Amino acid sequence: MEQHLLKSWLEKNGIDRLSISREEAREKLLQHFSGFCPDEAMKKISKILS
Question: Which Pfam families match (predicted)?
Fold first, then answer.
C-alpha cells in the first residue's frame, strides 16, 4: 500500500523515482545540506538519516 501511495504522489507531482541505493541517497542529501546548514544542523540531519 505504501509503495502505491508513494508512486501516486510522485506521479502527481511530476517527480521521477531515482534508481539509487539508500546509502547513495543519504550521501547526496548530506552533500546538499552541507552547503548551507550550520554544523549543529548537519549533526542532527546526519543522525536522522543514519
Answer: AlkZ-rel
Kindly state whether residue 27 falls inside one of the protein's structural domains.
yes
Range of the domain at 38: 21-49
Give the up-direction half-sphere exposure of residue 7: CA atoms within 13 A in the CB hemisphere. 4
Task: Answer for the pair 41, 21: CB distance below 8 angstroms, yes or no.
Answer: no
Band (28; pLDDT cuts 50, 70, 90): very high
- The domain tally of the chain equals 1
Q: Spell out the SS3 assignment of the chain.
A: CHHHHHHHHHHHCCCCCCCCCHHHHHHHHHHHHHCCCCHHHHHHHHHHHC
Give domain status of residue 14, yes or no: no
